[in-house]
Amino acid sequence: MALSRPKRYKIALAGNLAYGLSKLWFSTCRIRILQPDLHQKCLTGGPPSIGATWHRGAIFYCYFYGPVHPMVMFSQSEDGEYLARFAQKCGTIPVRGSSSRGGGQALRRMAHFLRQGKGHCSTVLDGPQGPRFKAKKGLLLLAKLTGAPLIPTMWSASRVITLESTWDKTIIPRPFSEIVIGHGQPYYIPRDCSDDQLEDYRLEVENLLNNLMREVDGLCGYRTRWINP
Question: Which CATH number belongs to the domain containing residue 111 in this structure?
Answer without folding.
Answer: 3.40.1130.10
